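DATA SHEET
Item: assembly model
Revision: 1
Owner: S.N.
Input lines:
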Amino acid sequence: MLHKTKVLFLVLLTVSLMLAACGGTEPAATSSAEQPKKPIKVGAIFDLTGATADVGTPYSEGIKGYVEWLNANGGVEGHRIELISADYAYKVDVAEQLYSQYVSEGVVAFMGWGTGDTEALRTKIAEDKIPFMSASYSAGLLDIQVAPYNFLIGTSYSDQAIIALRWALEDWAAKGNSDKPQIALIHHDSPFGTSPVADAKAFAEANGVTFTSLAMPRGATDYVAELAQMARFGADYVVVHTVSSPAAVLLKDARSQGFAAQFILLNWCADEIFINLAGDAAEGVIGTIPFTPPTSPVPGHKNADEFLKSKGSSLEAKGLHYTQGWWTMAVMTEGIRRTIQEGKEVNGMNLRAALETISNFDTGGVTSPITFTPTSHRGNSSLRLFKVENGKWVSLTDFISAK
Amino acid sequence: MISGIFHSSYEKDMALRRTHAQKIRLVILFLFLLAFPFIFRENRYYLTLANQVGIAIIGAIGLNILVGYTGQISLGQGGFMAVGAYTAGILTARLGMPWWASTIAACFATALVGVLFGIPSLRLKGLYLAIATLSAQVIILWIVTNWGAVTGGVEALVVPNPTLFGVRLNSDFNFYWVTWLLVLLVTIATVNLFRTHYGRAFIAIRDQDIAASVMGVDLFKYKLLAFAISSFLVGLAGALTAHYRSIVTWERFTVDVSVLYLAMIIIGGLGSVTGSFLGATFMTLLPALLTNLGRAARGTFPAIDSLLPFIQQGTFGLVIILFLIFEPEGLNKIWRNIKDYFRLWPFSY
């Protein structure tokens, strides 16, 4: 017994020595010796090991890549951006810990990730006046009263669903039909999944479309029952709002069942991962993608691609979530730039005011232009549709607005 | 020279604090807890951690009453915390109830829900009960996410800031006092609970339920009572998170949380209040420690920077396994061994 205790002491001792040793190297790790101007601290949390790590990792690389590229090219107005980040494994309490740690270290802005942390931190960021951007595009975050410091870069899920419906109506008419199509919305069984349902339903009813929505059971290994339900309903178009892997299963089942409706995927399942998983079943599927995939090149991809090529990779290899992270960080940086140009101190409140002056900010075609105002933090409400052709997302339409 | 602790009277045996050293340690701990927020007043991070630890301790003590003391395995912790958090949140946000009233109401509501899901415990034991309580977790979260009219469902539930005599309570500094005062109350109540016949009945059920029943312990009554008391405290922990963060989201109460709390009490020590303290503190602080360790190590070996998050996760698992291999009875037993070592030095066996 005592022997064991001694061994444990030794283990603890080693760990604490390691801690001490590592603590000593910290100042050396941050080499800001030659920067004449004060670096600007931005906090970030990423999911690198949790449930959404498959898409969270390229997103995080995009944000880090942008900061590295920016600092290598002179920073913002001569100020370096110091990105303080860590993995939170999609755990809400860890997100809270990291948030308060970074805020006490003086970050002026915070980059979040999913619905879980974005919702959980909403009240605190409003209180601390820390502008916050994440990859959660719930329409609930658009209410300036309840979320005064949240900014949405991507098109909200509700707007995406409405754009999908709008395109379906046009497509149906273009095919020479005089009646209205039947449209089903199948979604992830969670608040994330149900987020666009009410708005999509309202839009469908206003346009005389017969509409139904159903949830995809969590943890299901096939969706044959749900497909049968949609076949009985007589769906001509199916809008899918989930993540990549269940969407791929759904499409494979649909193809093997001979289900003929046109599928339209919202952004969290319309990505390269979906194509890899679904294979041939992905062909012909349409996606509402707020951030133009690298397979459909636009000028806004250039910097990221060149940066990655200098590192021996490429934007096409990293995929559209890298682009998403890159440009989300770029918009936050634009706010910081404007704050400095106005000659104000870079703090949360001034940064929010500066972000709210951003109007028709050009992302080089990656997204439709971004506009924030003091009454609306909805970055944009239009996007382009893409279609899977030969295993690649290719551009199908010009920007379609949800308005 | 002492060779152990021996009591020569029943009063001493039943006493809450049995030795002088224990009293001194408690005084030191108490003074440390009093001084802590003043030392770290400017550092929100440490205060946030302290509050999370405090809330976790209350939840862990609650779960330990059920699992450690009464022997009824529960995987419904996350669900019960959600009941506490949502009850407190809804009563305060929608009915304008003061935070303390909604917290008390949340405790009773959770106790009631706990009793409801505890009913199968008369027939089910061990793994079967674990599955039955897992269903509580799933059912409660399903209701929370689908009953939008009441819980907010899609939207998170925003709870107004708690105030007392005009002072806002949920800043990290102020909430520290709320949390740790409640930790103190819960600790005193729980330690005393196991000096009463109720607590002894719980332990009797855990050790051998048939024997307990033969001795006249009403199994059904006491099992449900254990569920009620346990859920009461778990509900308190849930209600505290609601008032502390002033927002309630379902993603805080997933099944991961149930497993995490079970891990806390197993690593801390089943059937021990000290164990709940140690386990909750350890499981809350270890990931934070590893994250900071990883951050400090970043740049030292650039080649493994991208692997650091995985190394952290792996280390977390490894440390837990090592602790359990070296001391299956948990941190509490390690703590006792350390005390014994010094007490019996140099003539320990």
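QC remark: Chain B has 15 helices and four strands.
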